[in-house]
Design brief:
Layout lengths: L11 E3 L2 E2 L2 E2 L3 E3 L1 E2 L1 E7 L15 H9 L5 H4 L5 H6 L3 H17 L3 E14 L6 E9 L3 E2 L8 E2 L6 H14 L1 E2 L3 E5 L3 H15 L4 E4 L5 E8 H11 L4 E5 L1 H9 L4 E7 L5 E3 L1 E5 L6 H10 L3 E5 L12 E5 L2 E6 L12 H13 L9 E5 L4 H9 L5 E5 L4 H9 L10 E3 L7 E4 L4
Parallel strand pairs: 9-10, 10-15, 12-16
Antiparallel strand pairs: 1-4, 2-3, 5-8, 6-7, 6-25, 7-8, 7-14, 8-16, 11-25, 12-15, 13-14, 17-24, 18-22, 18-23, 19-21, 20-21, 20-23
Helix pairs in contact: 4-5, 5-8, 6-7
Length: about 425
């Protein structure tokens, strides 16, 4: 399946004003949600791609049947697992589950609204963003493609296929693409904060597994138009949701669901790898890494995430190594530790594609000690720990229209699934 690159829609002018500020500077890629369904409680969940162990999804849905994970990951509900259903076989149950949640009053309907979003209470700064619809035609995945929405990572096609099938069957968009407003981020930050201050009590509040509070407010009328006009004015970088945005293109949707946020609202944590099914011992692979020109040093103690780029830590059952790859020519992306691991270790030494099922991508919500436990318990042969990319470097890479390696940025805090969903037009 190839990425859809043609332009599908048209721009619309932004002329709204809110809080005394005129946000009209031209055209915008973002718009209020025509038909939004906002959570009334208990539907919130991690996004479907945040789980290195998918059995955790089943446990969450079993404990909370109202969790949106039961709709997003239908093959992992307790009923589907017991019956051995595939993703495609479980899709009808996903549609039934969503309809039942709406019928039970788990969601309330709102028309033509922007949804202001605040996340607070974590280690990160307070997050401000706005749920809205963004023109699919504005997606650009290469330097020669026009568009305000810059998609920056390679994708796994099977995930795109499943996301598109879910969109088409349910006719609802369940999880947002997280977009960084890199042009007018400070203005958007202040505008969302002001809109929340004027909006009173939130429509819904949800607490995630890390104790962060996720709150949403429905902002209609001119104020909602102003927020989306500002949100969609300038370069929007895909921080999370590369597969979701491509699924919108593959499904030929005019618009996709997004949360547009600001650089001040987010941080990037590490994105690690667990490896199983090595053809030999972990020590053998480490020796081979040294033979291709990297400096390999065994160190005492358990593995720790490198403080900064340039050093990769590898752990294999009680032994920890620090690896420094040799100098290489090319772009800043070519020199990233993520790229070197993918190209020189997985592809070069093991002959594995980055999408090989023997590689598990583990986001920064899981500490180094958890990865070591997986290796020590025999659930993986090797852990590869990589320092996080910085937010300024991420923005710079994208504005240069370069492409990040797969699963190289774990943005926090994560937008929570199941708080705001968008119903697609019929037909």
């Amino acid at each position: 399946m190839k990425e859809v690159c043609h332009i599908l829609g048209v721009h619309s002018a932004a002329t709204a004003t809110a809080n005394g500020v005129d946000y009209a500077r031209g055209v915008t890629a973002a718009h209020p949600i025509d038909q939004a369904w906002l959570s009334t409680g208990n539907t919130g969940a991690k996004n479907y791609d945040e789980f290195p162990d998918e059995t955790e999804i089943t446990r969450i849905v079993e404990a909370n049947p109202a969790s949106m994970l039961g709709v997003e990951m239908p093959a992992h509900t307790p009923e589907a697992v017991a019956a051995g259903l595939t993703f495609e076989q479980a899709l009808p149950a996903a549609a039934e589950r969503l309809a039942a949640l709406k019928e039970a009053g788990r969601f309330a309907a709102f028309g033509d609204v922007a949804v202001a979003y605040r996340i607070s209470g974590g280690e990160e700064p307070v997050f401000y963003g706005v749920y809205c619809l963004v023109d699919t035609a504005e997606i650009s995945s290469a330097a020669d493609e026009p568009g305000k929405v810059i998609r920056n990572e390679d994708v796994f096609i099977e995930k795109v296929k499943q996301r598109n099938e879910l969109n088409q069957r349910l006719r609802h968009l369940l999880s947002p693409v997280l977009l960084l407003q890199s042009t007018r981020g400070d203005e958007l930050h202040a505008a969302v904060e002001a809109a929340i201050a004027d909006a009173g009590e939130p429509v819904s509040s949800d607490t995630d597994e890390s104790g962060r509070a996720h709150e949403i407010w429905a902002i209609g009328g001119e104020a909602g138009e102003a927020l989306t006009a500002l949100a969609g004015d300038g370069d929007l970088i895909v921080a999370d949701g590369n597969h979701r945005s491509l699924a919108a293109q593959v499904g030929e949707l005019d618009r996709f669901l997004a949360v547009v946020t600001t650089p001040r609202s987010v941080a990037i944590r590490p994105y690690h790898r667990l490896v199983k099914g090595l053809p030999g011992a972990a020590t053998q692979l480490v020796e081979q890494i040294g033979q291709i020109g990297a400096t390999v040093t065994e160190v005492d103690g358990p593995p720790e995430t490198p403080a900064e780029g340039g050093t990769v830590v590898v752990y294999g059952r009680g032994r920890t190594w620090e690896i420094v790859f040799g100098d290489t020519e090319g772009s800043v992306v070519d020199r990233l530790d993520h790229t070197r691991v993918e190209q020189e270790v997985f592809d070069g030494l093991l002959g594995w594609d980055a999408g090989d099922k023997r590689i598990t991508y583990v986001g920064g919500d899981y500490p180094a000690s958890w990865l070591a436990e997986q290796v020590d318990a025999g659930r993986a042969d090797l852990a590869v720990l990589i320092a996080p990319v910085t937010v300024p470097d991420f923005i710079d890479v994208n504005l240069q229209r370069l492409k990040m390696p797969r699963k190289s940025t774990w943005f926090v805090p994560k937008a929570r699934a199941g708080l705001a969903i968008a119903e697609l037009p019929k037909g």
